[in-house]
Amino acid sequence: MFVCICHGVTDNTINKCVDAGSTTMRCLSNKLNIGKQCGKCVKTAKKVLDSKLKITNVQC
Structure pTM? Predict the structure, then answer.
């Protein structure tokens, strides 16, 4: 599913970033430009991030 239409970021892209070590919204924003244009994606991106972190048991 697309999370950020402005930059074409999907939930799979976010999950891959988490697998590569991104554990914060700041990291995702820097790597994927999430929230840097219209900002409507931030809430959904945070949900995807939190869900992935919970599944992988990564501590923030």
Answer: 0.88
